[in-house]
Design a protein that fits this description.
By secondary structure, this protein is of the alpha/beta class. It contains 14 helices and eleven strands.
């Protein structure tokens, strides 16, 4: 099962020549920021339909008409940032370029630091050879903290995530769970010391949190009984509660999403809520069923059940993507067929088809955003 799509795919394509060789600078925060209102900020991952630079530019242009924000979810250059927070880094330059493109299209950015593999949340991403893959490793902790502080100082994001769908990792590695919690607490305090206004969170995978998709670690757990302990162990250092949700892995179609599927969040916390990623497929894919009406039902379920409490709502893909184009790039990066197959499970999640044809759910999305 694929739990997220790596936003770094888009980032890898966006090493831009638009600055004429000059060092890029981060655009200023807009005078009228969506984050300064009480309204929900709507957005997407910046994943283009084609693995090409031209597709990246076109995507950002298209998003400008249907979104307020994009969510960047980036891996950590471990060895670079083991040296310190202020090292020279092409990675930081590349992110700056994405900020420039976003600003040019009137989009703001939500940032998530992601130490894990977006195609398999049970493992780390990109650790150097010989590094122990756990959050007790002092090198992991140092690089994670240094990188996060660099992001804070360089980009000043209003919302900052310190890992994605962390409960899936905690399920798979219970012996390491408290090590991550202690690292999260340490980094949270360090960020707040520099930027007390920054809103910090970690995301939780909702289907996994509710045991509705059978996994070996779910044996003995009851469906629809939420594992609140995995969330509340981060309190009080959660500024908002943030989930991801892909209910097509648990329900045959969107109409089967229970009317109270998301509502337990409303009474469990009085803090703001957010959806950091999610979606529903529009065509049958592997063992999962999907259609355009299911996408509409999914959007309506979130909007009806928790929409009034959402600080931001990120839908995974604006467009479906061309898997052949991505497969070629992924093989060049050394990723295997299993990763490509997993990624393909999400190829029809977009609110538009690969060629730009709108699906039924796009009108629903736009209506929520315009009438917020």
């Amino acid at each position: 099962m694929k739990r997220t799509i790596i936003a770094a795919i888009a980032l890898a394509l966006a090493i831009l020549a638009c600055n004429g060789g000059a060092t890029p600078t981060v655009p200023p925060t807009p005078q009228e920021s969506v984050f300064d209102t009480t309204e929900t900020a709507y957005g997407f991952f910046p994943t283009p339909p084609e693995a090409s630079l031209e597709s990246v530019f076109q995507l950002y242009k298209d998003l400008g008409a249907h979104a307020d924000v994009v969510l960047l979810q980036e891996g950590i250059p471990w060895e670079e940032f083991l040296q310190g927070a202020d090292v020279e880094s092409q990675h930081i330059t590349d992110i700056t370029n994405q900020y420039i493109i976003a600003s040019q299209n009137n989009l703001e950015i939500i940032y998530v630091v992601d130490p894990l593999n977006g195609l398999n949340r049970r493992e780390f991403m990109g650790l150097p050879n010989g590094w122990e893959a756990n959050f007790a490793n002092p090198d992991v902790r140092t690089a994670f903290k240094n990188y996060t502080l660099r992001v804070v100082r360089e980009f000043h994001p209003r919302y900052l995530g310190l890992a994605s769908e962390i409960n899936t990792y905690m399920d798979a590695h219970p012996e390491d769970a408290l090590n991550f919690v202690s690292l999260y607490n340490e980094v949270y305090d360090a960020v707040k010391a520099e930027a007390p206004e920054m809103q910090i969170f970690v995301t939780f995978q909702w289907e996994d949190l509710n045991n509705v998709f059978p996994q070996p670690e779910e044996i003995g757990r009851q469906k629809f009984v939420t594992n609140w302990d995995q969330v509340e162990i981060f309190e009080p250092r959660l500024d908002l509660w943030v989930i991801s949700s892909y209910p097509f892995i648990a329900f045959e179609d969107g109409s089967q999403i229970p009317a109270d599927y998301y509502t337990p969040l409303l009474t469990r916390t009085d803090k703001p809520l957010a959806v950091a990623e999610g979606g529903f497929i529009s065509t049958d894919t592997g063992p999962f069923h999907g259609d355009q009406q299911s996408q509409v039902d999914y959007l309506n379920a979130i909007h009806t059940q928790i929409g009034s409490r959402l600080s931001f709502w990120i839908y995974l893909l604006f467009n479906d993507f061309n898997l052949d184009s991505y497969a070629k790039m992924m093989k060049q990066q050394g990723l295997g067929d299993d990763d490509i197959t997993t990624l393909g499970m999400f190829g029809s999640v977009g609110l538009r088809e690969y060629n730009g044809t709108a699906k039924s759910a796009l009108e629903v999305w736009d209506s929520f955003r315009k009438n917020k």
